[in-house]
Amino acid sequence: MTPAASSRMYLSIIALLVIVIAAMAWKFIVAGSTLPAADGRIVVALAPGERALLLREMRGFVSGLQRISDALARNDMAAVATASRAMGTAAAHDVPLEMLGKLPLGFKKLAVGVHGGFDAVAADAAQGGTATRTLGQLGGVLGDCVACHAAYQLAVPEPAR
Ligand code: HEC
Fold first, then answer.
1. Over the stretch 33-88, which tens digit does the pLDDT of each residue have?
2. 76 three-class SS
3. CA 56 / ligand 1 centre spacing (Å)
4. Among protein residues, the one whose CA lies closest to atom 6 of ligand 1
5. 151 lines ligand 1 (CB under 6 A)
6. Is the C-beta atom of 103 inside 6 A of ligand 1?
7. Pairing of strands 152-154, 34-36
8. Ligand 1 atom having least distance to the Cα of 111
9. What distance in angstroms lies between residue 75's CA and the mean position of ligand 1's atoms?
10. How far is CA 24 from each of CA 21, 34, 81, 95, rounded to the nearest angstrom?
11. Which of 14, 43, 58, 60 is paired with 94 by a 20 to 30 Å CA distance?
12. How much is the pTM?
């Protein structure tokens, strides 16, 4: 093979690899693993264990919100901060990398918004924020819960046998 021909071959191989890597990155970061849902939402196709992990986190949100409203009624801002921090960004680190790759970008953005929102609520409550201000901030965070449920659902699981 002439030097020109072999460098052309190497360049083609490099170009091919770049395309493959870009396609994989797009799938992992942007597209995730999704299907259209019958009701117009997007189904995020997760393995049963991943689905269980996500739904466990969701139920954790409800019980965290229960603790926050209870603490707000008593004007216990330290307890508001503790309950809110437990749902913050640090809690999101449990998600395995493989599962992260199945979540579409819009889903990840809303998840980051909710966790970051709870961090902000915790920081404000710990620094003298009032109960009324916390309620206003929670309204914003809950808007992301609503937006995600309106856009996404999980694949219906096989019944346990
Ligand atoms: C990034 C997307 C996203 C965000 C943000 C989100 N959820 Fe969810 N949640 C889901 C999906 C998807 C399901 C499964 C719904 C389905 O399959 O129909 C779900 C299910 C749930 C469930 C049902 C749990 C179960 O065991 O069946 C509850 C409760 C819930 N979410 C509460 C919340 C609350 C409260 C918030 C905000 C603090 C929240 N979610 C934020 C995506 C999200």
1. 899 989 999 999 999 999 999 999 999 999 999 999 999 999 999 999 999 999 99
2. coil
3. 9
4. 145
5. no
6. no
7. unpaired
8. 1
9. 28
10. 5, 15, 40, 20
11. 43
12. 0.89
Q: Where are the alpha helices (DSSP H) in 27-153?
A: 48-73, 77-85, 97-100, 105-126, 131-151
Rounded to the nearest 5 degrees, what angle is found at the Cα of 139, between the Cα atoms of 135 and 143?
165
What does residue 46 show for φ and ψ, rounded to 5 degrees? -110, 155
**Distance, CA of 69 to CA of 84 (rounded, Å):** 11
Q: What's at 4, amino acid-wise? A: A
Nearest-CA residue for atom 31 of ligand 1: 58
Q: Which helix (H) or strand (E) holds 5?
A: helix 3-25
Residue 127: partners with Cβ closer than 8 Å, 6 or more residues away = none
The rounded Å distance from CA 102 to ligand 1 centre is 16
C-alpha to C-alpha distance for 101 and 52, rounded to whole angstroms: 17
